[in-house]
Amino acid sequence: MVKSTIVVRASDALPLAATVDDEQTETTLQEHKQQAKLIFRRITGNAEPRCSIESGQYTLHYLIADNVVYLVITDKSYPRKLAFSYLDELSKEFATSYGAKVEAVRKPYAFVGFDTFMSKTTRLYQDTRTAGANGGAMDKLNDELQDVTRIMTKNMEELLWRGDSLDRMSHLSTSLRSESEKYRKAARNINIQAMLRQYAPIGGVLFIIILLIWWRFS
């Protein structure tokens, strides 16, 4: 089920809004909320826009849109499709209500009013076992869920102990393309040199013969 949600500004990790969690939830998720802060610090301009980070019995899902990070902590068994559909709902509403003000705010939790929408949306997504009670609206939602097979999944240990980043994997493919291009050029040059070594003697002989014929009949 959905446990807790926080919205921060991506450029400096300034908290913009968060769900109001009860004391038990705060105690249970204390470590994971600290991990969320770590994630916010690791986010750069080249970070994956959507990522799921597994941590013990919970998973931290985040979505980046328009310099805002939306992060939700859920049970590990909670479907990723629902988690990211939930984050999409939040991002659309937040952009509509507060998007133009995000860059100007200086104090934390400037948009506490967003909690009302988050609470209402959380109830809709709260538990997959009771989702059917929401009737046609939830059925429609399930029909519209996005494909999350390409969303990056990481483990919190990678971030904590290995110093792993949240950068996109595209830089790797770009590097591979660059290296491939270098190898293609090198191979082409080698082929040209091989052809020159193979046919240069023949060309030289033909050139001499042509010169002799020209000298004889000139």
From TrEMBL:
Could you tell me the Gene Ontology terms of the biological process aspect for this record? endoplasmic reticulum to Golgi vesicle-mediated transport; protein transport; retrograde vesicle-mediated transport, Golgi to endoplasmic reticulum
Organism per entry: Steccherinum ochraceum
Question: Where does the record place a coiled coil?
Answer: none
- What compartments host this protein? Endoplasmic reticulum membrane; Golgi apparatus membrane
Higher taxonomy? Eukaryota, Fungi, Dikarya, Basidiomycota, Agaricomycotina
Keywords (alphabetical) are: Coiled coil, Endoplasmic reticulum, ER-Golgi transport, Golgi apparatus, Membrane, Protein transport, Receptor, Transmembrane, Transmembrane helix, Transport
The Longin domain covers 6-118
Q: Which Pfam family, just one, is annotated for this protein?
A: Longin
Family statement:
Belongs to the synaptobrevin family.
The protein depicted here goes by the name Protein transport protein SEC22
Extract the GO molecular function terms from the UniProt entry: SNAP receptor activity
Show the PROSITE patterns listed in the entry.
Answer: LONGIN (PS50859), V_SNARE (PS50892)
Where does this protein chiefly localize? endoplasmic reticulum
Q: Which residues form the V-SNARE coiled-coil homology domain?
A: 137-197
InterPro entries in the cross-refs: Longin-like_dom_sf, Longin_dom, Sec22, V_SNARE_CC
PANTHER family (alphabetical): VESICLE-TRAFFICKING PROTEIN SEC22B (PTHR45837)
Membrane spanning stretches = 199-217
Membrane-related topology note: Single-pass type IV membrane protein
Return the GO cellular component terms, semicolon-separated: endoplasmic reticulum membrane; Golgi membrane
